[in-house]
């Protein structure tokens, strides 16, 4: 029986990077790991949803349901999604006994990284045709995780350090 891990954090904090590293580590360790990347599933399973609070909560609920359906096929299922509301994170924790790993990163570092150019677009003047008005953590809500099982500050930790801390954390826990 597998275990679901939630990787939460702002855009550019390293959720996909850590998930992919964990996936590769799993292959080398003989573990079956599935990655559910929020960006990818926004275009398939959740393509009918917008970015309101209700839609964001529905998005994470669907990802949790999908992850749950895979529990017998994988050792770990990683949900890499911003998941900005404590309510959504808590729902997954209670319903599926997930581990919550928060990839914390300061805004200055995120703006500097900006791998998708989202922060640049969110900081454009109002009325600009390319402006993003709902970038989580900048001009839309991101509630600080209160119940994270592990917090990784990706503004000071390398991807390799984050992976090692994640593996150590999961190895030391009694996974339900």
Question: Care to count the β-strands?
Answer: 5
Number of helices: 7
CATH level-two architecture: 3-Layer(aba) Sandwich
Give the CATH superfamily: P-loop containing nucleotide triphosphate hydrolases
Distance from first to last alpha carbon: 9 Å
Topology-level CATH name: Rossmann fold
Strand content: 5-15%
Biggest beta sheet attributes: 5 strands, parallel
Number of domains: 1
The average pLDDT score comes to 91
Just give the CATH class.
Answer: Alpha Beta
Unreliable runs, pLDDT <50, ≥5 residues? none
Shape: globular
List SSEs in N-to-C order. Answer: EHEHHEHEHHEH
Into which percent range does the helicity of residues fall?
40-55%
Sum up the structure in keywords.
alpha/beta, 5 strands, Rossmann fold, about 180 residues, five-stranded parallel beta sheet, 7 helices
Describe the structure.
By secondary structure, the protein is of the alpha/beta class. The protein has a single domain (3-168), classed as Rossmann fold (3-Layer(aba) Sandwich), CATH 3.40.50. Helix content is 41%, strand content 15%. It has helices spanning 15-29, 38-41, 53-69, 86-96, 107-113, 118-122, 159-172, and strands at residues 3-8, 33-37, 76-80, 99-104, 150-153. Strands 2-3-1-4-5 form a five-stranded parallel beta sheet, sandwiched between helices. It is globular and about 50 Å long.
């Amino acid at each position: 029986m597998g275990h679901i891990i939630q990787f939460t954090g702002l855009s550019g904090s390293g959720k996909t990077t850590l998930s992919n590293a964990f996936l590769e580590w799993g292959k080398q360790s003989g573990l079956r790991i599935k990655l559910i990347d929020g960006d990818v599933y926004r275009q398939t399973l959740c393509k009918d949803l917008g970015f309101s609070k209700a839609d964001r909560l529905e998005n994470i609920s669907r990802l949790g349901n999908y992850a749950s359906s895979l529990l017998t096929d994988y050792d770990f299922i990683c949900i890499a999604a911003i998941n900005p509301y404590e309510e959504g994170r808590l729902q997954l924790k209670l319903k599926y006994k997930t581990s919550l790993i928060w990839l914390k990163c300061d805004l200055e570092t995120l703006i500097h990284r900006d791998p998708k150019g989202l922060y640049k677009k969110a900081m454009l003047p109002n009325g600009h045709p390319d402006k993003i008005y709902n970038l989580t953590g900048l001009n839309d809500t991101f509630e600080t995780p209160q119940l994270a099982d592990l917090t990784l500050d990706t503004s000071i930790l390398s991807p390799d350090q984050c992976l090692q801390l994640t593996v150590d954390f999961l190895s030391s826990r009694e996974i339900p």
